[in-house]
Amino acid sequence: MAMQVSVAIVKQDHLILNVSQMSQILEEIARIAGITAEDVWIYLQDIPATQMIEFGRFLPAPGDEAEWEREMTPEKRSSLPK
Question: Are 41 and 54 within one domain?
């Protein structure tokens, strides 16, 4: 069994995962899924916030998450994990 993992993150100029961090992600995925590292494919995509929509709205720029969350309906905010 192979597992494909696609990770989309909001583009941040200072965020660069090094080989060690990517290796740790690979090891953890394999461990949790109970498969070998050979069966894991990881695609990391650094996407600008203006090209991602969650909860019906464009994602905020890095650092503006708290304001973005405050603008959600109370019902949606209460349904989110703490």
Answer: no
